[in-house]
Amino acid sequence: MVDDSLNRTGASLLIDALQANGINNLYGVVGIPITDLARLAELKGMKYYGFRREDSAVDAAAAAGFLTKKPGVAMTVSAPGFLNGLTALAQATKNCFPLIMISGSSERHIIDLSQGDYEGLDQYNTAKPFCKKAYRIDRAQDVGIAVARAIRTAVSGRPGGVYLDLPADTIAQLNNDLGEKNMGVYRLVDPAPLQQPSDEAINRAVDIIKQAKKPLIILGKGAAYDRTEKQVQELINQTDIPFLPMSMAKGVVPDDDKHSASAARSLSLKGADVVILIGARLNWMLSYGNAPQFNPDAKFIQLDIDATQFDSAQKISAPLQGDLTSTLNKLVPALTATGYKTPSDWLDAIAQDTAKNDAKFAKRIKAGETNPKFGYYGAIEPINDYFQEHPDTYLVSEGANTLDIGRDMIGMKLPRHRLDTGTWGVMGVGMGYAIATAIETDKHVVALDGDSAFGFDGMDVETMCRYNLPITVVVINNGGIYNGVENVVPNQLGPTTLDPTARYDLIAKAFGGDNYYVTNYQEMKDTFTTAVESGRPNIINVQIDPSMGKESGHIGNLNPTLNLKPLEEAEKEKSEKE
Ligand code: ADP
Ligand code: MG
């Protein structure tokens, strides 16, 4: 399709190297110096998806990495574009999503003498602390090996983000050195080699589980990423060990499986004497494994590809280093050979607590249908109803209360069908994740967003509409960060206040998508299915009451409070004292 000298440019070799490794989608925002690179990618048969801001594009590539188990690839321009993408690069690395961010850059000699190039920045060194590894391609002849290193680094061991620095010179430089050797471009052999724990390590774990009176499995997004559903389900079915899924592990075992301890989360964490972590970290989301959330005498078994994760916060009594699939392929038969079954009194205690909590929850949901103050429960119930009937729909979610209540309410039946704010709890991932999910899966996608979260990347609604993607963005609008009514200074817009009358749905209309506006449960119920099944890009503005929504959602404990009093009250108290 392109002539021979073009074929020898760094740009062309880069595209060949990606394609040779089965990477056919590129996400990005073009400009100097990568515009022709993106065009050439299209000419050579890749699909290029252009965004409105780099963080959305890089988030999209990260989501593609999570969904496909191959690195997603994003491209940005130099300094400001690179810096906009950097948050998403850091976040992908924290989330263990394989990603390659490629940014156009300046030549080394200009940067090193600080000569003041157009958008000049030492991007290579700036990126280093925010990714697994940064590489820089100074010569066209090195492109093949650079891409190989980037791919291997992104997917092997603990997956993560890689930065590839691409000086403008390298893009246009000709490689005439390698001739027939396919110009140094090749397909990697075994990019993420399997790793097995030793028999000794397996036996150590089996010996501990065998003795467990109250075992518990915690599934993390590593289990989803590594496609362990078959092995995990067998483990659970053979031993009856109850499980708790972290949010992105929902669906590895269906949420409605009888072994789910989700509705008895506190009781099962507090009671468990043996905790088996499968692709989950004992970080802030699991209270670092500490009491009182966990039993102080619990023994931990951890399955992870990264040995440095063990003992991060608790003593790990049986570390199992390896990829999860290989590890489970050894562990499950070894454990079932012992005939181990979870003691029934532990299962009964969980079942009782589950029944109690389920009844409470069902009551709350029912009340949400008719509550004159329309809130989260009434808004989200129809979404859950839809997902129970159509489990092969994808869900992306962000926000505070929207995220937390949606996570509890929406049951997932299939693995890797839920993407959310992840390890850092970042807002502004919704549009990038939803767009990539629609592209990579060809399925309907629901992006469930709080009004504040949606504001971070709302302009990428234009991207969703431009590519005519089957995405329904649900904006739960309570006019504020957390909520829209919490003000301390009278007659002044407070820090958490947003516009409760904002018509987010009209943004879709502006770009040729469809818009819906609902103000109560019945309208949401009537609208949601139509919106999703239209297969068109659309936004539903769900107008809930501005007083709905707790400060910081379910993690208010992380937000230092200063015992603030509304100004009038404080002045009254002061004058009373005088
Ligand atoms: P969650 O937030 O869902 O609890 P985390 O992101 O904290 O999950 O943990 C995921 C863990 O899974 C990380 O420690 C990561 O090293 C591990 N992991 C990711 N991919 C694999 C894999 N293929 N095999 C084994 N472990 C993996
Ligand atoms: Mg809000």
Automatic annotation (TrEMBL):
Its EC number is 4.1.1.8. Residues 410-542 form the Thiamine pyrophosphate enzyme TPP-binding domain. GO terms for molecular function: magnesium ion binding; oxalyl-CoA decarboxylase activity; thiamine pyrophosphate binding. Gene3D superfamilies: 3.40.50.970, TPP-binding domain. Residues 202-331 form the Thiamine pyrophosphate enzyme central domain. It comes from the Bacteria. It is an enzyme of class 4 (lyase). GO terms for biological process: fatty acid alpha-oxidation; oxalate catabolic process. Residues 566-578 have a biased composition (Basic and acidic residues). InterPro entries: DHS-like_NAD/FAD-binding_dom (IPR029035), HACL1-like (IPR045025), Oxalyl-CoA_decarboxylase (IPR017660), THDP-binding (IPR029061), Thiamin_PyroP_enz_cen_dom (IPR012000), Thiamin_PyroP_enz_TPP-bd_dom (IPR012001), TPP_enzyme_TPP-bd (IPR011766). Residues 550-578 are annotated as: Disordered. Its cofactor is thiamine diphosphate. Keywords: Lyase, Magnesium, Metal-binding, Thiamine pyrophosphate. Pfam families: TPP_enzyme_C, TPP_enzyme_M, TPP_enzyme_N. Transmembrane segments: none annotated. Residues 9-123 form the Thiamine pyrophosphate enzyme N-terminal TPP-binding domain. Signal peptide: none annotated. PANTHER family: 2-HYDROXYACYL-COA LYASE, 2-HYDROXYACYL-COA LYASE 1. Belongs to the TPP enzyme family. This is Oxalyl-CoA decarboxylase. It comes from Lactobacillus hominis DSM 23910 = CRBIP 24.179.
